Amino acid sequence: MRYMDDLKLTRRDLLIAGALTATAAAVPTVAGAQAQPAAGRVDSPTPPVMSKVALTVNGQSRELDVDTRTTLLDALRENLHLTGTKKGCDQGQCGACTVIVDGRRINSCLSLAVMHNGAQVTTIEGLGTPDKLHPMQAAFVKHDGYQCGYCTPGQICSAVSVLDEIRKGIPSHVTGDLTQAPLLSAAEIRERMSGNICRCGAYSNILDAITEVAGGKA
């Protein structure tokens, strides 16, 4: 069994082979570490790209100089200090940031301010004031359409737009006949308001408020 004799290794041979293997494995790690920036080194940050944006917000002309990455929501809250519009999920899922832009409701957290240069923007502050409430605001108070109130500005802006959509004949997912104007119904309202989440669960009261206003001017 000569081939067995050829395979015999001494303890010294094994130690040498193990050391060589460990060294070979460590070489890429050391090389990678040397390629990294020196400890404590901080590269200069890239300055933001700024842009001027002209908006008409609640009937007033406003001109902003904002970072091009600024959302419409942050521009309203941080630059114009209109904090009635709320930041909830910041992912377009809760509806707390809903505002009306050029007659249509949008999630302002998903839209960049620079996309709306020249636009007409209505926030909850522009719908009514404590002294002169919008009919929808008054109906929410009457029917207790809020509890904590955090989602209420977005709920009200959506509710106003929902009635406008129905009046214009814009169908929804539950509209039965797409060749005719949608009928005002609980199903239509619930479907159209489904993008606005109320974690307090005041949905039935919100429906009552919208239904009451539906017969009047919203």
TrEMBL record:
Protein's UniProt keywords contain Transcription regulation: no
- State its Enzyme Commission number(s): 1.2.99.6
Q: What class of enzyme is it?
A: oxidoreductase
Pfam families linked: Fer2 (PF00111), Fer2_2 (PF01799)
Q: Which UniProt keywords apply?
A: Iron, Metal-binding, Oxidoreductase, Signal
Q: Which residues form the signal peptide?
A: 1-24
Q: Which SUPFAM superfamilies match?
A: 2Fe-2S ferredoxin-like (SSF54292), CO dehydrogenase ISP C-domain like (SSF47741)
The UniProt record lists the 2Fe-2S ferredoxin-type domain at 51-127
InterPro entries linked: 2Fe-2S-bd, 2Fe-2S-bd_dom_sf, 2Fe-2S_ferredoxin-like_sf, 2Fe-2S_ferredoxin-type, 2Fe2S_fd_BS, Aldehyde_Oxdr_Iron-Sulfur, Beta-grasp_dom_sf, TAT_signal
User: GO molecular function terms here?
Assistant: carboxylate reductase activity
According to UniProt, the name of this protein is Aldehyde dehydrogenase iron-sulfur subunit
Organism for this UniProt entry? Pseudoduganella plicata
Gene name in the database record? paoA
